Amino acid sequence: MARTRGRRRPRRRQRRRSRGALSELRAALAALALLAAVGLVVWVAGNWAQVWPWLAGGAGVALPLAAALLVLWRREQANRRRWWLRANANLGRIDAMPGIAFEVYVAELLRRDGYTRVVVHGGANDGGVDITCRSPDGRPVAVQCKRWRSPVPAHEIRDLLGALASTHRGHVGVFVTSSRFTGPAVQAAHGSPVVLVDRASLARWIDRSPPALPAR
Question: What is the pLDDT of residues 106-152, one digit of tens each?
Fold first, then answer.
């Protein structure tokens, strides 16, 4: 056993030497790169009059190209969202969605129908609101989504009302579910700034009949 250990020591020393040499090489390369960068900055500063026309010409080509690529990318993203919305335009597919996918789906319905500044918050600490947006007439809207099979109870409506009275004061509330609301939940929303969208209303919304917000 002692001989075996003695034979392994030179290999360990060789590995340590290799690692040390590699570290020194990396440090040397980093120093050279830093010197090259400093030299480039000094050279550009000393020859600014000659360099500036080239930089300006390059920017004149690069900026419009970048803007065009950004427009194309946004159009592609919008096309993908519309395709995904159509591909899932039935309640059977919605029933199979996880909760976060349902929130994204509702957000896409809002975008399709002219809502702007649509942001999906979601998560366990969403403060009772999954989506915030602006209605077509400019009002702030806070949306809560529940992709449930069981009916939505009254305390969920009260939680949304609490959010509208605190962190989302001044917002119109919309509560969307793939199920239905209990009688007490409907009573809790009665006369409040919360619009209830149950399964039947959601089906109509998918068919381009969005829920009406309360009058101003």
Answer: 999 999 999 999 999 976 666 779 999 999 999 999 999 999 999 99
Q: What does the CA dihedral 67, 68, 69, 71 come to, rounded to 10 degrees? A: 90
Q: What is residue 161's DSSP assignment? A: H
Cα separation, 140 vs 170, in Å, equals 7
199: Cβ–Cβ under 8 A, 6 or more apart, which residues? 91, 177, 178, 179, 180
For 36-57, the pLDDT digits (tens) are 887 777 776 777 667 667 666 6
Q: How far is CA 72 from CA 68, 82, 114, in A?
A: 6, 15, 21
Residue 96, CA atoms < 13 Å, CB-side half-sphere: 5
* pTM (predicted TM-score): 0.66
Instruction: For residue 156, give the amino acid letter.
Output: E
Where do the structural domains in the chain lie, given as residue ranges? 2-82, 99-206
- In CATH, the number for domain 99-206 is 3.40.1350.10
